[in-house]
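Hey, can you fold this one?
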Amino acid sequence: MPDAPPGQPGRFATEGRAEIAAIVVTYLSAAHLATLIADLRREARDVALRVIVADNSPDDATVRVARRHPDVIVVPTGGNLGYAGGVNAGLARAGDAEAVLVLNPDLSVREGALRVMLARLRADERRGAVVPRIVDETGRTARSLFREPGVLRALGDAALGPLWPHRPGILSESVRDARAYTRAHDVDWATGAAVLLSAAAAARVGDWDERFFLYSEETDALRRVRDAGFTVHYAPEARVAHSQGGSGSSPALDALLAVNRVRYMRKHAPHRAAPYRAALILGAALRAPWSAPHRALLPVLRDERRWVDLPAATWRGGDSGPCAVAAVIIPAHDEAAVIERTLARLAVPAASGAIDVVVVCNGCHDDTAARARAFAGVRVIELAVGSKPAAINAGLEMTTTRPVLVLDADIELPAAAIPGLVRALDGAGAVGGRPPFEYDLTGADALVRAYYRARRRMPHTSAALWGAGVYALTREGVSRVAPLPGVTADDVHVDRSIAAHEKRIPPLAPVRVRVPLTASALRATLRRVRRGPAQQGVDTGRGTLAALLRTATTPARAWDAAVYAAFALIARRDASGRISRRGRWTDWERDTSTRPATA
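Sure. Predicted structure:
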């Protein structure tokens, strides 16, 4: 359908105020997009619409369809950032709008649906989201409404399944009663194929959580809408048709759906995550004898080591032209065992010029530099003296690209986290930030696992820039902290130089922090880690103790807290005993328990 003349109904607003900013997240969607745009153009006769297409496709076929419409804002994401990543890329271009509409590309919007949804949103200021009735290709109402996930509901779905289809809501996450789909009412959450958010709710929720590559991102977003004090309203008179499966299906995607349900519980109800996971395992085990998909799912749910192989976001680099969107500085001292593993995660955008990667080898006696130079687009500096602050300072002089990420050589940073971090640091008032991190406890002994379980329950560890092995600085951030002084813990120095309201930790694909595998390795690591803050006059003992006590809400958590406290006290004693008479730190340790042998 050709564009309507400027100023006439049916044309999308590319600037100024819009009633609805519609974000369409696409992936190989060329066959569907034209139909959806035609539907939205019809709706634009009654509602002032802005349309943004955020494309995750590996080719440009979908983008070419979108660009046939000059009044459609097209945002190639530069990779497959997942549904949440696409939503976030679109939100960055939403502009001034009363509401934000998130849409699947394989939808057909029935006439008047957007007008009805907007009217329902306006009818009650407490409403933060409105969802429509979803019908299939035959016009039959699809089951699209759900209750908040819980252990008892998961057990009911696992054990009863289709045997008791009309069981009470306490035993099912899915809303099965057909009568619920005929009346307007508030719900916990709904399928994310079509969700209208008020501008106020969208602002409170912020970025969608990109840790959910596919599935559960809408559960999380609508949970945060409710946590912000808004309601989620179902409007059955507004209808959209959905093919129910536009993202495809495969054993890997089926597994990702189940695993993300566990990840959701770990985020919002961590104390119930283990029994919830057990309920999902039970459901898969009961169906495995006659269901090939459930036979494939069962070992993935049981073995968390398999989760890293599930589908995840990728990023090759966007439309930045000849300019990199960010720099990555990697200080490396005898890191031949790990440097290739770290650079492999950044190889594609580095080779395309989307990021400027600088490896600063300092005091190396191995072939770290040669291994780094083997990667296209990676620049290498060699310093004679081993000093991490000096290496970072040299890297900051080598690259003028900002923002700049400082990455430890043994930390695997997903490239897909970079565009979201760049967007966050581009916001008003941002000075520094980092992606989230998760501890990789694979192979760790019981005491080490207890220590890190306690550590990740303390909120101050999730709000600081230290501890992740990576931090990022804007141009203002660099001018504030550089040149770095000769301190052991550069991330603590950076964190202390940036106020809490200037830090950005958006919900992105996390970095994996490999923890020491043994108690003796953890003790050595903590001895070194403890020295850094102490050298800068930082003592977090009282605050850490108070936070730790607040986590000890069950006997199991109390045990974890006790293990954490014991290791912290030992590290404090060890560190204080390793200061020379001149006040200089001696006997540096490195955790070798997680490092592979150098080939």
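The two ends are 60 Å apart (CA to CA). Let me know if you want another pass with a different chain boundary.
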